[in-house]
Design a protein that fits this description.
alpha/beta, 8-stranded mixed sheet, 7-stranded mixed sheet
Length: about 350
């Protein structure tokens, strides 16, 4: 069921939600959280589709905030709120409110969203694109227990990682970090099966891919060993190589879906390691609303402390990076300089 409201108010939107639920016989008590999606018209469709798909696992009230930038000075002075209410099959397993804020109202989105939040339920804010530099201090981010960004969508992802580290607050997280959960699980399981002291590591993947950098920083931080970054054509992460005193452990995924795990003394094994859709990533983040201390330690480790990326054809083939261990990538150097200048 869809209800369109023009030049409306938060009170009228709440009334429309109650009326729509009564019409289709759906109560609001089954919803577990409020998900606020801050986006623009260009990305609204994909973002709302991902949010609706994730709501099948986490029934929620989805509030999409779309700020409409007016072209003329006169229009910018006018404040207007248009809304679309979706309940039932049109909104996954919850309900959706699409807010379009015109004129000066776009600068006060929190005053429109606050009356629409579910009472006594957690609030999560997600920026699919153009996240603020400090999500916790953003007016909408201040309403939330969990704030989700995506450095992969930034124009300069490595610079964006440095910004995330400098402004981190408990509750912040990043879909670039969520993308490497299967990799972290698989590598941890491999070391559990074959306990050995790791002496160095190599992470291979696309250039300027924040997930590759985060995985490299995670390994360097948790293992306390030098980690090199090498480049490949992708897609995304393609391989990780752990040099141990007992031999080499290689997790190689060349096609973006099926990976091969190679360990000394054991036959090679094929493992499913597909690239996941945004809805799956979002659903994973909504499973936990407490601070992610491992992400905090990883993002604060610093991209500039990794070795600079070197061209590589295949980590699994024993390629040795040609860049010196202390050389930082240009983007990482730029991020480090920005971070130092802000202190």
């Amino acid at each position: 069921m869809k209800i369109d409201l023009t030049e409306t108010t938060s009170s009228k939107i709440n009334q429309a939600l109650v009326s729509a639920r009564r019409s289709i016989g759906t109560p609001a008590i089954g919803m577990v959280l409020t998900l606020v999606v801050v986006t623009d018209e260009e990305n609204a469709y994909d973002a709302l589709r991902a949010a609706a798909d994730s709501s099948r696992e986490h029934p929620s009230r989805i509030i999409a905030v779309i700020k409409r930038i007016s072209r003329s000075p006169r229009s910018r002075r006018d404040a207007r709120l248009d809304a679309e209410v979706r309940v039932g099959s049109d909104s996954g397993s919850g309900e959706t409110v699409v807010l379009r804020l015109h004129g000066e109202l776009a600068n006060h989105a929190q005053s429109v969203v606050l009356p629409l939040l579910l009472p006594d339920a957690p609030v999560v804010v997600w920026w699919p694109e153009d996240a603020p530099a400090d999500p916790a201090k953003d007016p909408l981010g201040a309403l939330a227990q969990r704030r989700i960004t995506d450095t992969y969508s930034a124009e300069h992802p490595l610079d964006e990682l440095a910004v995330r580290a400098a402004t981190y607050q408990p509750g912040d997280t990043d879909l670039a970090w969520t993308r490497i959960t299967p990799w972290r699980s698989m590598l941890a399981a491999a070391l559990d099966q074959q306990p050995a002291q790791v002496v160095s590591a190599t992470v291979e993947g696309e250039s300027d891919n924040p997930s590759c950098e985060l995985l490299a920083m995670w390994l360097a931080d948790r293992l306390g060993v030098p980690v090199e970054r090498t480049l490949s054509a992708g897609p995304g992460l393609t391989a990780v190589r752990l040099e141990t005193k007992s031999g080499v452990i290689v997790l190689d995924r060349a096609d973006g879906s099926l990976a091969t795990l190679s360990m000394v003394g054991q036959p090679d094994r094929a493992v499913a390691l597909k690239r996941r859709e945004t809805a799956e990533l979002l659903a994973e983040e909504l499973r936990r609303l407490d601070p992610d201390n491992i992400y905090e330690a990883t993002v604060k480790f610093g991209v500039e402390r990794l070795g600079g990326p070197a061209e590589a054809s295949s980590v699994g083939a024993g390629h040795k990076p040609s860049s010196p261990a202390g050389a930082a990538a240009p983007a990482a150097k730029k991020a480090a300089a920005k971070k130092a200048a802000s202190k």
